[in-house]
Structure formats: structure tokens, C-alpha cells
Amino acid sequence: MATKYSDLELAINSLVTDFHKAADDGPTLNTTQFQTMISKQLPGFAKTMENEEGLAQVLEQMGVQSGQNISFENFWTLINKQAVQLFDATHKDKNVKCSCLLQ
Fold it and tell me: Domain S100/CaBP-9k-type calcium binding subdomain spans what residues (predicted)?
């Protein structure tokens, strides 16, 4: 009998799979691979990275040093920030705040 995965488990699997697919099955993404993946998977967010300054700010927020490739841990930091922002934006009127930022 096949295991039935939850929506959350499937979403996590998609994040991991898409990251490694974009990295050509490698452990890290270069900035071109990262930008391509983001434009396909997070097109609304990709607009913040349309210029070098925007890309540099996103990389800095993820903890990526200049010239360094992007690890899945760096990418997960971005996903966490995006999830918190989305939650806050969709729950404004409910007076609920997400405090699940990574340390």
C-alpha cells in the first residue's frame, strides 16, 4: 500500500526537489540558476530581483556572501521569510502574527 503524504509533506518535497533540479542535482545554486528558479517558482517575488541591487539585497538577507553559491539552507531562510510575510499579509484582519523567524 502506498504511503499517503500530507499537503505539507508534498510541499516540502517540492521545495527540495525544485531546488536540486535547478542546481542540476548539485548541492548549491549559482546566482543564474537561483534567478531562473525564482522566476519560474516565485514570479511575484522575482520582481524584487530584477536588478543587481535587488538580487544583492535578497542574497544578503539569505546570508549569502558575495561570490558564494546558494545552499539549500540559504534558500530555506528565504522561504521562511516569504512564508511569514505571506501569513502576515493574509491574516491582517485576524490580529494574528507569525513569530516563526529563524534565528
Answer: 8-47
**What does the alpha-carbon distance between residue 26 and residue 28 come to, in Å, rounded to a whole number?**
6
CB distance 82 to 42 below 8 Å: yes
Instruction: Please state the separation of Cα 25 from the chain's center in Å.
Output: 17
**How far apart, in whole angstroms, are the C-alpha atoms of residue 65 and residue 87?**
28
For the CA atoms of 70, 33, 39, 15, what is the dihedral angle to 10 degrees? -60
CB atoms within 10 A of CB 54: 13
- pLDDT tens sequence across 36-83: 999 999 999 999 999 999 999 999 999 999 899 999 999 999 999 988
**Pairing, β 70-71 against β 28-29:** antiparallel
Structure-model confidence comparison of residues 54 and 103, the more confident one = 54
Percent of the chain at pLDDT > 90 equals 73
Q: How far apart (Å, rounded) are the C-alpha atoms in residues 6 and 13? A: 11
